[in-house]
Amino acid sequence: MRLNLPSFLRRRGLPKELLESKEAKIMHISDTPDNIYPFILNLIEKSRPEYIIHTGDLVDNIKLERKPELKERYAERVKELLDILENSGAEVYIVPGNEDSEEVLKKLVRKARIVKPGEVVKVDEVKLALAHDPSQLNPPKDVDFILYGHNFRNIKHGLNGLLNVNFILLGSKKVVRVKYPDGTNFERGYKLMRGL
């Protein structure tokens, strides 16, 4: 049976094993500019994750750390993303990033769990250390995965949600990566990135 995928998912070559897997899965995203929210919604609809973990900067094109006067606009956009995540049927975890307002998140979150940077959570039998910035991590040795975002740095045993959408198949602990749409880094504010 051939799935009728949106063209951007066909071009991306959404992995067959992700679409056909019967295993419960985690979807990990980070540093999401608002122009990719339709991509996130379509990816959720196609992959049907049981868990979604966002490791911060929910509206990464609005830099609240430098422009706090944009808080109202940030709140409008973050509400749109929360509607997508919280209405997905998945259990949602959010680690606030440096460009997020915890005050706004606490006011708008209905079902998601807000997680402190560096916290370890257990999903099924898989232990995850979560942070926005990898420098916030000091995980115990027995964690299965380290999930983070914030910059292009890779750390040992870590999955960087800024580089890819990471799916963890919980039964096999296999990781399946999906690329973000072209132009995502530009929308994040990385105008001079080359070779990525």
From TrEMBL:
<dbReference type="GO" id="GO:0016787">
    <property type="term" value="F:hydrolase activity"/>
</dbReference>
<protein>
    <submittedName>
        <fullName>Metallophosphoesterase</fullName>
    </submittedName>
</protein>
<feature type="domain" description="Calcineurin-like phosphoesterase">
    <location>
        <begin position="25"/>
        <end position="107"/>
    </location>
</feature>
<dbReference type="Pfam" id="PF00149">
    <property type="entry name" value="Metallophos"/>
</dbReference>
<dbReference type="InterPro" id="IPR004843">
    <property type="entry name" value="Calcineurin-like_PHP"/>
</dbReference>
<dbReference type="InterPro" id="IPR029052">
    <property type="entry name" value="Metallo-depent_PP-like"/>
</dbReference>
